[in-house]
């Protein structure tokens, strides 16, 4: 138990601007409990090298030379579904936000996010949260209000799984959902595996998006 609480969060970076890339690497390496597992200037460089040293968290830009960040994380999430991905970008338009979340990103941060907040957001994402810059969160809410949902789809979720999914949609992470339901963190992870299988998704953000799109809750 003690070992899991002190586990170092291995974080990798994909960012083409050298100053930003090196600044993030320094921030991560000099923050207790974190380690920079790799920094790459493109997805073409990152994808083959990440296979040999898979991080817990990937911080990725969207506007990259060659393959863009959204395409890249789609490939990486298929290969490493347990890897948490956070976008860190200047773009705050609906299309890129939606595409990034559907590709498997667990959070979406703007580059003006402070260093302290970036670290806080990484911790939140590792705990099962879906951190977003305030402006992005507002756009996501507006986006779902504007999208007319289809008829309700039945994914054969149990009442307990449906209740857990509802808590995630309301903004809970695995830890707070466990407290709300009076069960252990590992129990939540066990149920989430079944939910992911039934919904055919690979991340909390994908599960939340599918729940909202298909009126599951």
Features of the shown structure:
single chain, 217 residues, alpha/beta, Arc Repressor Mutant, subunit A, 2 domains, 11 helices
How much helix is in the residues?
40-55%
State Rg.
Answer: 17 Å
CA-based shape: globular
Question: How confident is the prediction overall: mean pLDDT?
Answer: 88
Number of domains: 2
Order of helices and strands: HEHEHEHEHEHHHHHH
Overview of the molecule:
With 217 residues, the chain is an alpha/beta fold. It has two domains: 2-143, 3-Layer(aba) Sandwich (Rossmann fold), CATH 3.40.50.2300; 149-213, Winged helix-like DNA-binding domain superfamily/Winged helix DNA-binding domain (Arc Repressor Mutant, subunit A), CATH 1.10.10. Helix content is 53%, strand content 12%. The protein is built from eleven helices and five strands; from the N terminus they run αβαβαβαβαβαααααα. The protein has a five-stranded parallel β-sheet, with helices on both faces. The longest helix is centred in the C-terminal third of the chain and has 15 residues, at 185-199. The mean pLDDT is 88.
Secondary structure blueprint with pairings:
Elements: H1 2-5, E1 9-14, H2 18-29, E2 34-40, H3 43-50, E3 57-60, H4 69-79, E4 84-89, H5 94-103, E5 107-110, H6 115-126, H7 134-146, H8 159-169, H9 174-181, H10 185-199, H11 204-213
Parallel strand pairs: 1-2, 1-3, 3-4, 4-5
Helix pairs in contact: 4-5, 8-11, 9-10
